Amino acid sequence: MELTLNRSDYLQVGVTSQKTMKLLPASGRRATQKVVVGDQDGVATCFGIKKGEAVPVFKTLPGLKIARLELGGALNTPQEKIFVATGSEIRGFTKRGKQFLSFETNLTESIKAMHISGSDLFLCASYIYNHYCDCKDQHYYLSGDKINDVICLPVEKLPCIIPILACQDRVLRVLQGSDMMYEVEVPGPPTVLALHNGNGGESGEDLLFGTSDGKLGIIQITSSNPVHKWEMRNEKKRGGILCVDYFDIVGDGVKDLLVGRDDGMVEVYSFDAADEPVLRFDQALSESVTSIQGGCVGKDGYDEIVLTTYSGWITGLTTEPVHKESGPGEELKINQEMQNKIASLRNDLEHLQFKVIQEREKYQQSSQSNTAISSVPTFSVNDKFTLNKDDASYSLILEVQTAIDNVMVQSDVPIDLLDVDKNSAVVSFSSSDVEVNENFLLATYRCQANTTRLELKIRSIEGQYGMLQAYVTPRIQPKTCQVRQYQIKPLSLHQRTHFIDHDRPMNTLTLTGQFSFAEVHSWVVFCLPEVPEKTPAGECVTFYFQNTFLDTQLESTYRKGEGIFKSDNISTISILKDVLSKEATKRKINLNIAYEINEISVNHTLKLIHPKLEYQLLLAKKVQLIDALKELQVHEGNTDFLIPEYRCILEEADRLQEEYKKQPAHLERLYGMITDLFIDKFKFKGTNVKTKVPLLLEILDSYDQNTLISFFDAA
Amino acid sequence: MLLPVFTLKLRHKISPRMVAVGRYDGTHTCLAAATQAGKVFIHNPHARRQHLNTPRLLQSPLDADVSLLNINQAVSCLTAGVLNPELGYDCLLVGTQTNLLAYDVYNNSDLFYREVTDGANAIVLGTLGDIASPLAIIGGNCALQGFDFEGNDLFWTVTGDNVHSLALCDFDGDGKKELLVGSEDFDIRVFKEDEIVAEMAETETITSLCPMYGSRFGYALSNGTVGVYDKTARYWRIKSKNHAVSIHAFDLNSDGVCELITGWSNGKVDARSDRTGEVIFKDNFSSAIAGVVEGDYRMDGHVQLICCSVDGEVRGYLPGGAEMKGNLMDTSVEQDLIRELSQKKQNLLLELRNYEENSKQAESSSPMNESDAQRGIIPANTKLQTSLTVNMGSDSQAAHVELQISTSNDTIIRAVLIFAEGIFPGESHVVHPSIQNLSSCIQIPIMPPKDVPVDLHMKTFVGYRNSTQFHVFELTRQLPRFAMYALSSPDSIKEPLSFVNFTVSERVQRVVLWLNQNFLLPDDSEIQSAPFQICFTSLRNNGHLCIKIKPSGEITVNTDDIDLAGDIIQSMASFFGIEDLQVEADFPVYFEELRKVLVKVDEYHSVHQKLSADMADHSNLIRSLLVRAEDARLMRDMKTMKKRYVELYDLNKDLLNGYKIRCNNHTELLGNLKAVNQAIQRAGRLRVGKPKNQVVSACRDAIRSNNLNVLFRIMRVGTASS
């Protein structure tokens, strides 16, 4: 059965955060549910839909931004009490809007995540987890990295309370009381947690997670160890998961999984007999989907998916057909409703326009005064700067609540801006002026009308570090622009990983000197992405990294007065050495740097590169042949006369071309890294081999693994 | 939702823009398109295997309905239509860089095969002005040529640069068609037969033109712009990061007015309203669009819109019927309208909130502090001043026009974005000083490559050193047309030998007004009364320009740059509203160069002929050598055979070398021919109106009769007779 859902927009509130919209359980005779939503102006709005119009139930006063909104209530009763997390405070409202709770927590930071179960309240600030029961402090835990979400397994089904934290360093931390039971490694930074089927499955231990790189999975959290049930990779390269819900929208008696992503994708998965997810429906909206829930809001008898978007639209994807097949009168009525709505909107607009013109004049007048100031409140920019593992490039996503006029991108390091299909903005590159103003890249993106979300792709080079700045100008009067800064770190292509291969030949860099733990940590933060800014607890810490492009690895272990960095890639060590000595000199710290170079590691790295290089060379060669072969095919009429290898190329032509297009300049990047490796190897020996680089490039042009290795050995 | 009525997957690639629909037998509609390897294919789904296998037309081995026509050269343009009204069916026209072929598909014969030295970049077929018979008009290297069905060249004229697009359209509403020409120098020119009646300056090479209805026409540029003109006024335009491959006018929503259908390089097809540019329909192909055409492909009496992709996918769309009410897209109109209105409302509310917050801030106004600066709070009376001056440059920097932007207080300028067309490599230029170079004043060098007036749309980010939010000041200034000429004193420079001389009946004040509008004159330069002389130095090449005005209204412009002289005359003519202007001109240096070029053209022509003859000789030799070699092989005389083949190999090498020489010779020839065509165009641009057309046609006649002295005479005085 095909699922068709029709979109209808209900209401717009302020900018929303992740997981801030819920449907209140249906009460009394009415089957339609009410929607409650909290926005970043601090307003919680509750409304129902009558005849296609949003009818407000209550609205709270503005305040600090609402980070989360959850429903709660005594266990085994309808969960219809509304809890809102704003700043470091939790407020409770009844479904009629009466405030019954105002609980000022003792957290110094604002609350980022919240979960409610009966009288238990689980709260998380950036790194701190707190458990309250009846507003009394129970347990406390300090996480090693930022906490993105918190949940606890259903207390009805399990003997004890088991909270789980989703942490930025790609682990779920399973707690008991104030202690961590164990860590579960997940394939990406988890952003959202949910109980499978809404109740944790039969055992109550099944937990669904979604990651910021768009992966989904289910893990059974048993009392002793995690059991991975299934994992879904993000094959279509869609956005990160922001919200999930379970609801039977298909109507087959089994709850379906509803997913909202940060690129505006809404997906519905149903589960087959083997409990594996199958995609049933997807629709692309133009901005991040921050909350999603299934229910019945618009019209009695028609289920729908209700969702909120970043700019605060509450939208329903309903099973109610747009054009009813009932008599012509009915349609007329629907039309009438629409017309009324449009008319009232137009009326509002006229009114507003008049007011705006007045205010504009006032604003203009104030520019005559010598004492007046002009200040425009900051608009919120939702941004995400992440490294994609697949093609070792960064993607920068900028989202603003109103349409973007233009984005100016500036960088003081050499980087490449790549074309993104989804991005319709007209890009224009300005000539860079490196000498005077250190601008390696200056580009403007002029957006088409109604663009609220812009995605850029950036390719960096390891060893070249600095700052990328984006100046975002939305289309709103008075015009302002906001600058956002992103660090391009020296080892920008490295990603945190859970474990590394200890058998590889390693080069070691050892730092010793009079530095504190916090100082050495700040250097690591400076050099490598995905390291928490906060100095970790304890005396000594170890992080593992993987180079997303070459798959080489890096182990960093450091404590007060000592830091040890091990990598099988000599270039990584070389970059670290350069950056660290520069940083230390800047801060006037006396640093002893010792390194131990393992000659075998160079050949090992070359062997790691070999299959990639060979594959790329073959691919390039094949793609080059396609056109010629096709011409032969046209000429001869069939392909029987071709050798099987060529026939194979023809058959796979489309796939090959697609793949070739997907990774532009891949070969050049590999060449660049081999060159770096070559230079770095001899740099550690104290010789400068830059003069031999042309020779190396020549060898690469007619690539053969053994020649290359012997060149490295001989030079 | 409008769905395609048919979808075909042809197993041939289609070259972009090379698609045409025709009834080659008078009844059946066939699709012709250029494909790889210098071939043209004809898809005829109606009459199976009716086409004969003749040497010229081959059955495609891949597709039963497809015949292949071998052109043996890269096809550069293709169209189909009625060239000979007596035949009663369409013929196929195929242009390459050297030839034009008019092909009768039905009889499998050539109507004509003409050599065209200027190449054929674009082709259009139809009637032009008062010329009775339909013409196939091709546009090449600065030249336009029209042929009738016998291959007689009935129309010839020159234009400013390489032609990239052509269209026929009733531009002035007189019931006769005018020719629209889009060329590499960013101009759309309108020819009423061989007279230019209008010129519109665009911002990039014009890649496509199509008539819509009446005097309205669509255009596409190589930078992704698509738009609609009505006469000389642009109705709307949009710009995409993709390129418009093909544009076509078609009434897709059955409202009686054609929409502009665009096929894009990313595989999108969209239909836009001719009035507003609003998208009323769109569809997606998996690969780039190669062409958009129309025809009754199903032979049911209804004309379909046919879109082809480069991979050979063909989709046909029937116009939406009345029941669709012009609503061709998936979403409901009302929903969209509500969304749009709500968005507007939200924006207004936000703006209102901005003002509220602002006044709140103002009330609690305390002396500005650090955090205020970070939030981008600036004094309300901050003003931005801009000035344009000529900077004569220094050792490290070439002379340029300097745009200076400064704020009126201690605020700094974080960055400046200038959006302007045609003067920067992209559409915008960014100035972003490094943190130590931040100040409240910024100088931006501008070097416009062409003498065109340009609007500079500036967005200036104003704030403080550590601000994260900036105010954006939006200003627009016009860069005068001749900004790249600096005023210099008449005594210090030597007057150029070349000149143009003409008389206008205008008061001196008006001329001074024109000067002020078109040049960057310093503020203190006083207005003189006639006669006066004013001199400039070009910032590009230090060339001099002197303009002298006598009380009688006689104006002399001295410059060695013939283009500049043309620009000045055209600019004055439009400023003073002059319709016809005869000019006396002399450009000794330029004319001497032109003379050399003409001599060279002759040389290259003779070399070309000689090389062709050589090649013919060689091919005869090859034939005999091959026969003799094969004879030797049959007679098992291996030694002789080897010898013959070695000879053959050598000869082959010679041929290859000869080919290279021919190629070089040809490019040189093309370059020189372009120079000649441009010279005629330039001579024309020195005049306005009728004298202009007279010069162009007289020059052409002089070149035909190879009478160089007459040619130069015409260029000097404007007529052949004395």
TrEMBL record, chain A:
This is Bardet-Biedl syndrome 7 protein homolog. Keywords: Cell projection, Cilium, Cilium biogenesis/degradation, Coiled coil, Cytoplasm, Cytoskeleton, Protein transport, Transport. GO terms for biological process: brain development; eye development; fat cell differentiation; heart development; limb development; non-motile cilium assembly; positive regulation of proteasomal ubiquitin-dependent protein catabolic process; primary palate development. The BBSome complex is thought to function as a coat complex required for sorting of specific membrane proteins to the primary cilia. The BBSome complex is required for ciliogenesis but is dispensable for centriolar satellite function. Residues 600-712 form the BBS7 helical hairpin domain. It holds the Pfam family Beta-prop_BBS7. Residues 494-595 form the BBS7 platform domain. InterPro entries: Bardet-Biedl_syndrome_7_prot, BBS7_GAE_dom, BBS7_hairpin, BBS7_pf_dom, Beta-prop_BBS7, WD40_repeat_dom_sf. Residues 335-362 form a coiled coil. One of its GO terms (cellular component) is axoneme. Residues 377-486 form the BBS7 GAE domain. One of its GO terms (molecular function) is RNA polymerase II-specific DNA-binding transcription factor binding. It comes from the Eukaryota. Part of BBSome complex. Residues 21-319 form the BBS7 beta-propeller domain.
From TrEMBL, chain B:
Keywords: Cell membrane, Cell projection, Cilium, Coiled coil, Cytoplasm, Cytoskeleton, Membrane. It comes from the Eukaryota. InterPro entries: Bardet-Biedl_syndrome_2_prot, BBS2_CtH_dom, BBS2_GAE_dom, BBS2_hp_dom, BBS2_Mid, BBS2_N, BBS2_pf_dom, WD40_repeat_dom_sf. Residues 338-365 form a coiled coil. The BBSome complex is thought to function as a coat complex required for sorting of specific membrane proteins to the primary cilia. The BBSome complex is required for ciliogenesis but is dispensable for centriolar satellite function. This ciliogenic function is mediated in part by the Rab8 GDP/GTP exchange factor, which localizes to the basal body and contacts the BBSome. Rab8(GTP) enters the primary cilium and promotes extension of the ciliary membrane. It comes from Sarcophilus harrisii. Pfam families: BBS2_CtH, BBS2_GAE, BBS2_hp, BBS2_Mid, BBS2_N, BBS2_pf. Residues 588-685 form the BBS2 hairpin domain. GO terms for cellular component: BBSome; centriolar satellite; ciliary basal body; ciliary membrane; microvillus; motile cilium; stereocilium. The keyword Kinase does not apply. Its main location: membrane. Residues 397-482 form the BBS2 GAE domain. GO terms for molecular function: RNA polymerase II-specific DNA-binding transcription factor binding. GO terms for biological process: adult behavior; artery smooth muscle contraction; brain morphogenesis; cartilage development; cerebral cortex development; fat cell differentiation; gene expression; Golgi to plasma membrane protein transport. Residues 485-576 form the BBS2 platform domain. This is Bardet-Biedl syndrome 2 protein homolog. It is found in: Cell projection, Cilium membrane; Cytoplasm, Cytoskeleton, Microtubule organizing center, Centrosome, Centriolar satellite; Cytoplasm, Cytoskeleton. Residues 690-716 form the BBS2 C-terminal helix bundle domain. Residues 165-272 form the Ciliary BBSome complex subunit 2 middle region domain. Residues 20-126 form the Ciliary BBSome complex subunit 2 N-terminal domain.
